[in-house]
Amino acid sequence: MTTTTLPAPAEAPAPVPPRRRVRGLLTRHWYAWAMIAPVVLVLAVLVLYPLAHGVYLSLTDATEMNSGRTIGVNEIPATYEFIGLENYFSVLSGADGAFYPRLLWTVQWTVICVALHFTIGLALALLLNRALRMRTLYRMLLILPWAVPPFVAAFGWRLILNDEGGLLNAVLNVVGIPGVDWLGQPLAAKVSVIMVNVWLGVPFMMVALLGGLQTVPKELYEAAEVDGASPWQRFRAVTLPGLRPVSGTVILLGTIWTFNQFPVIALLTGGGPGGATNILVTEAYERAFQGIRDYAGAATYGAIIASMLVVFAFSYRRWLQRQASEVLG
Amino acid sequence: MRARDERSRLASTGLHTALVGASVIAVFPVAWVLLTSLKTDRDTWARPGELGTLGLGNYGQVLGDTQFLTWFGNSLLIATGTTLIGVLISATAGYAASRMRFPGQRPLMWLFLVTQMFPAAVLIVPLYNVLSDLGLLNSYAGLILAQCTIAVPYCAWMLKGYFDTIPVSIDEAGRIDGLTPFGTFWRLIVPLARPGISVTVFYAFITAWGEVAFASVFMQSEDRYPLPVGMATFVSDFKAEWGLLTAGSVLVMVPAAVVFFLVQRHLVAGLTAGGVKS
């Protein structure tokens, strides 16, 4: 570092001039900043800037018709206008008719999926966390759905759930139960998308919780056993508290991912029938890319989704910290 | 001490029954796609009870008569690029967040968490404009960067947690031996963090390999399509080539399976450490 901009510091000045302070920070922290710079740059240019632009769009009446575009050699300038919070009023007042039903279903979808992911994942992790024959084989088979790309999974399940020629209905018919239009009736379609998402999401939970189980000290179990604790008591008093750090993290991530789970619903039912399985994210995508593209409406949905998740994450982490401090002291 | 793992025969049978049942459910849809892909008679997919003639005809058709191999190459390039760049930059950022104290550290961790909350489906329109301004539409580099935005926040968060579990004394030893902070990171910590890095490699590769929303909007010419977008052309309003789709799906799963088998040994250990410390 050269000192061309500042005179040489002959005397020690009492208040540090701001520019010096910046330089002090730089000399002390440039290494850390350099190491995080690529990530920050990528996220700033490709997430934060588009996000800011999206928030701006949500305050306008932008659609496909009034956005700037180029047709052949003619450049048509954008003519959309700033309209303030109007989009938010129209969405949050329920005037657009879709928001509250979608929100209700999104919350149901998230709660059911995460609860099933967690309980099934935990049950399988407990089974796998014992000495047993073929454990590695079981573990590999059970992780498999994680390695299946969602679009292949959706496609494979459509082969099974299909109305005509689907395997599930064929099996039901053999047993004597009339077939169900799995992807064509609102309730059956909801059950189907949840089923597929659970199938896809359990392996992550299972692996994370399996690792978590292995961090619980063996001595605690032995002590509990000496004290005469039943298996259920050991589970409640040793396993669950021991898993808390892992389960806190995976439930938070699982909630965020499920809330925004786009591919499963988009590829399995396309949000149908009649929008019954559309969660907020697929609704937003539909607005942005179907019919007359409603960029402002989609951006409004996006901003609302993101702010709900931010509020959830803050309060969930605070709740976790309070729980942890209660346990510890 | 009594061995805790001595079980009655009944309990043991129950345990194995439950695990076999779960494994069957986990594997079945994949196996069903595989079986369907081998049915060469037209429309046998619609009669699940019948096998018809089995053969590799569908595979021949996918590889010979469509642009499958081009798309496969595109996907491989994009997923590998995303994995390399994504894991490298999230590892350096995760290391800095784990070992160094600097202004902006807490906001950085929140940035990693919060960016996972923005639905990709909603970022597409503004992101499209950004890539268009940078001249990166319909280019591999553009799609790789876009895929990185999905992979990087989770990878960096994970790796920061994993690095936290590696004793700081190793860094100190490296510094005493005259390594730079980056040298310490690269020569000492990265090899020790192999389980954590395996998880992020797996995550980044799988995510980029199967991603549909960005890929379908940012790639516009057919010879640049990655697999999911290309294979969608097998389905149109008039006909669905189920034979091609199933055979294609099986081929798509092969690289994902390869990556999975390379890293699966490390998955449990890697994911745990990253999850415990957050």
From TrEMBL, chain A:
Q: How does it sit in the membrane?
A: Multi-pass membrane protein
Per its UniProt record, what Pfam families does this chain match? BPD_transp_1
Q: Name one GO cellular component term.
A: plasma membrane
Say if the entry is tagged with keyword Transmembrane. yes
> Where is it localised?
Cell membrane
- Domain called ABC transmembrane type-1: residue spans: 103-316
Gene Ontology biological-process entries: transmembrane transport
Q: Would you say which domain of life the source belongs to? A: Bacteria
The UniProt family comment states: Belongs to the binding-protein-dependent transport system permease family.
Q: What is this protein called?
A: ABC transporter permease
TrEMBL record, chain B:
The ABC transmembrane type-1 domain covers 72-263
Task: Respond yes or no to whether keyword Phosphoprotein is given for this record.
Answer: no
For this UniProt record, the keywords arranged alphabetically read as follows:
Cell membrane, Membrane, Sugar transport, Transmembrane, Transmembrane helix, Transport
Question: Quick one: a GO cellular component term?
Answer: plasma membrane
- Write out the GO MF terms: ABC-type maltose transporter activity
Coiled-coil spans in chain: none
Concerning Gene3D superfamilies, the annotation shows: MetI-like
Q: How does it sit in the membrane?
A: Multi-pass membrane protein
- Chief location of this protein within or outside the cell: membrane
Subcellular compartments: Cell membrane
InterPro entries recorded for this chain?
BP-dep_ABC_trans_perm, MetI-like, MetI-like_sf
Q: Which PROSITE patterns match?
A: ABC_TM1
GO terms for biological process, alphabetical: maltodextrin transmembrane transport
**What sections of the protein cross the membrane?**
12-35, 76-96, 108-128, 140-159, 197-220, 240-263
Hey, which family's this protein in? Belongs to the binding-protein-dependent transport system permease family. MalFG subfamily.
Record-given protein name: ABC transporter permease
* Top-level taxonomy: Bacteria, Bacillati, Actinomycetota, Actinomycetes, Pseudonocardiales
